[in-house]
Amino acid sequence: MDKRMSEEYEDKVKEYKNMGKSAFIIGYTGECGKELVKALSKNRIFNKVVLIGRRKVDITPDPGPEFEQKVVDYDKLDDYTEAFQGAQVGYCCLGTTKAKAGGKEGFVKVDRDYVLKTAEIAKSSGCQHFSIVTASTADKNSMFLYIKTKGEVEDALKKMSFDKLSIFKPGFLLCDRSERRLGERIGQAFMKPIILMFPTYSAASTAYVGGAMVIDTVTPGDEKLRTYSNEQIHGLIKQNGKQN
Ligand SMILES: NC(=O)c1ccc[n+]([C@@H]2O[C@H](COP(=O)([O-])OP(=O)(O)OC[C@H]3O[C@@H](n4cnc5c(N)ncnc54)[C@H](OP(=O)(O)O)[C@@H]3O)[C@@H](O)[C@H]2O)c1
Q: Is 96 near ligand 1, meaning CB less than 6 Å away?
């Protein structure tokens, strides 16, 4: 990134910061979520960031005084609307797997129902910009549960009329995952030659995804919907620099 581009990015950050907004994140303990927290901590664009999860975690280094963790019960989100109040921006990095969630119903509950309930509460609490990580393959008409669920979420969010909706659609996520996932490791082994041949086409690091979410946030524009493919996520980082 050249000096001019970096100065342009700094100007966008300054301008955004001056708006004095607040945000919340769901899924902040996951791999993309952790990188988003790092990028927000580095960029310091919000007055307040509420980290919403089912448990509190140690975050090191300390992201800063504007970050606050709040524990909610996702099955009773209506009882926790206070956690979402006052946030003009909402980030969602939530997600699970069928194996972790104990089957199809558990997966859909987390990846679709929790996400859409959060979006609904956020919208009615004044959230203007909702920003989410889905997947490159998302398609509501697919016969495959994961792809279909991601597609249904995208479709429902588009109908919710946020002032701005940003959808990040990475291919494979690259990271040192703290938890072991056999299926993902097998998938990555198969994908390895393609990832090596076309590094921006099929995979993105979680650091790039988290950083790209912040770059998108500070980038002005009137578009109601911004959708980022895996390649466009790489493009945002190339143009604006790594944020975490
Ligand atoms: N893996 C891939 O290659 C890939 C590719 C494209 C897109 N994606 C999608 O990208 C998104 C982010 O992925 P990621 O790998 O960063 O996610 P991750 O590391 O698995 O983190 C998932 C987050 O969701 C939370 N969560 C999971 N189950 C929950 C439950 N039952 N109740 C409350 N919270 C729950 C986790 O909280 P705890 O820490 O408390 O568990 C964590 O904060 C997901 O939607 C994923 O499907 C993944």
A: yes
Ligand 1 mean position to 225 CA, how many Å? 23
CB 67 within 8 A of CB 45: no
Residue 203 backbone phi and psi in degrees, to 5: -145, 150
CB 140 within 8 A of CB 151: yes
Helix/strand/coil for 220: coil
Per-residue tokens: 18: 């001056």
Which ligand 1 atom is at minimum distance from the Cα of 100? 28
Report if pTM > 0.85.
yes
Q: What is the SS3 string spanning 75-102?
A: HHHHHHHHHHCCCCEEEECCCCCHHHHC
SS3 at position 124: helix
Domains of the chain in sequence order? 3-240 (3.40.50.720)
CA–CA dist 175, 208 (Å, integer): 10
Q: Model confidence over 193-232: pLDDT tens digits?
A: 878 888 798 999 999 999 999 999 999 999 999 999 999 9
Judge whether 146 counts as a catalytic residue. Answer: yes
